[in-house]
Amino acid sequence: MAYEGTGYGVYVATGDLDGDGKAEIITGLGPGPRNKSVVRIFRGDGTLTGEFQAYPDYMRFGVRVSGGGVGE
User: Fold this and answer.
1) What is the dihedral sign for C-alpha 60, 62, 66, 69?
2) CA dihedral (14, 16, 17, 18) positive or negative
3) Residue 21, Ramachandran bin (φ over 0: left; ψ between -120 and 50: alpha; else beta)
4) For residues 30, 51, 17 and 9, what is the CA-based torsion angle, rounded to 10 degrees?
């Protein structure tokens, strides 16, 4: 699923976010001056499993993403 109407690419990371032993794909809009901080999470087969906005709407320039575990 593309981030339509935006530019400057996307940031990509992976991490096992649901604890099933398989990494999910995490994407965030790139550093474009009009890009919201939309983060999308996909399964390995490309199925979108979640989406959220990391910062308030007035904060633009995309969002960097990362995956990892706490307490591992």
Assistant:
1) positive
2) positive
3) left
4) -20
**Global pTM?**
0.84
61's tokens: 């320039």
Segments of 1-72 assigned E as strands: 10-15, 24-29, 38-42, 48-53
Quick check: 63 and 10 in contact, CB under 8 A?
Answer: no
Listed in sequence order, the residues at least 6 apart from 1 whose beta carbon sits closer than 8 Å to its beta carbon are 40, 42, 48
Encoded tokens for 10: 């996307």
Radius of gyration, alpha carbons of the chain: 13
Contact 39, 65 (CB under 8 A): yes
What single-letter DSSP state applies at residue 61?
S
In tens, the pLDDT along 14-32 reads 998 888 889 999 999 888 8
